[in-house]
Amino acid sequence: MAYFSKVLHICMKDLKVEVRSKERIYSMMVFSLLVMVIFNFAFDPGAEYIREVAPGILWVALIFSATLGLNKTFAAEIDQDCLQGLMLSPMDRTGIYFGKVISNILFSLIISLLTLPFFAVFFNIPLLDVLPQLVLVISLTIIGFISVGTLFSAISVSVKGGDMMLPLLLFPIEVPVIIAAVKATGMILDGAPMMDYSMWLKVLTLFDVIFVMIAFVTFEYLIEE
Amino acid sequence: MIKVSGLRKSYGSIDALRGIDLNVRMGEFLTLFGPNGAGKTTLLKILSTIIAPTSGSVIIGGLDLKKANYEIRKNIGVISHKTFLYGDLSAMENLIFYAKMYDVPNPKARAAELIREVGLRGREDHQVRTFSRGMEQRLSIARALIHDPSIIYLDEPYSGLDQHAALMLGNLLKKLHTQTRTIIMTTHNITHGLEISDRIVIQISGKIVYEGETKDHTVKSFEKVYFEKVGKRD
Description:
- The complex is a heterodimer of chains A (225) and B (234).
- By secondary structure, chain A is mainly α.
- In chain A, 83% of the residues lie in helices and 0% in strands.
- Chain B is an alpha/beta fold and 234 residues long.
- Chain B has helices spanning 40-47, 69-73, 91-101, 107-117, 133-145, 163-176, 190-196, 219-233; strands at residues 2-11, 14-24, 29-33, 55-60, 63-64, 76-80, 151-155, 182-187, 199-204, 207-213.
């Protein structure tokens, strides 16, 4: 019980710091909107093919904005060696990881939910009927992406050029998750029944479980100097 | 209280610690001197469970560091030249956060008490990023004391402080030095180091090369010993 309350304290602390600085949320949101605007100019929103490219556009915006947020995950902890302060706390150090994962998932979900209305308007895609299914796919994808991303962010933050290193480490591993997300989103936007894309949901769930377990086992070794 | 035997730490081919043997009694204030790269910070990081040793043993309060680092952490407070504080949070919010991480009962009251003790009353709701270096360091002391630890490690605590702030820090450290609290401090500053410690140690190139009682030395006599030892290395 004490473990979970400490995970929650770390998460709440991150939220509080973000509410004050607004550093992550602003950069993630601006990036996400810019992607929407640029693709809106590149593709004709009324065109037939738009439904085929729309899932890709959505996930470019969501995944890259999430990566921006991940780059800043441990930045506040490194500035005054706060990570060491957390590591000194009498708790299993995986609690630091889970606190960070939860706050990152929340930030990415907020950005995703704020991006969806722009996506619907810019590409003329009605989302209201498929919103629950879409939110389910977005949630599963974000969990998989953030669980590994937070782990790599802990590694890359203290490395020179870490901002560039993070996506290079992260994207090859996340390929199955991104493919599953794009495929499932495409089917949902086409109005397919859940049965059709349930395989992709299973793939997403499986990777979420595997990634969280790997991160849980390796985090403490990775943050140790 | 703290018993270190044959402690070694290697980073690849670099040996940061090359067989440290050290005993520190309960309530003792030990100052660790040494040039840059002597491995002082590495030693403190191992003692505070931040990094694992390559070999050797550390027993703290009867507990083996390798087996009971979770229990040991409950009794350790660390003050470094970095503050471990979040600039976007207020002084009070920082202390309450750390109090919760250490399961301190009534975190708000404990935080308020420490803010008073380190002389920051009136600034408790200000964001830490607006603090001077001296104020940050005082708040860092409050942060390290939040769970009333019986062991305190100070890693270059005077770094970056002006004379007034250094004097205030010295006074605070004197207050911390009680019979039940063991303190290990690393510093380059011989005057500060001798002023408050009971025992002094010189560490060079990952080995302890000198141990002595502070009362047997003046600043001048210790400077002579120190430069002799450091000179030998060169």
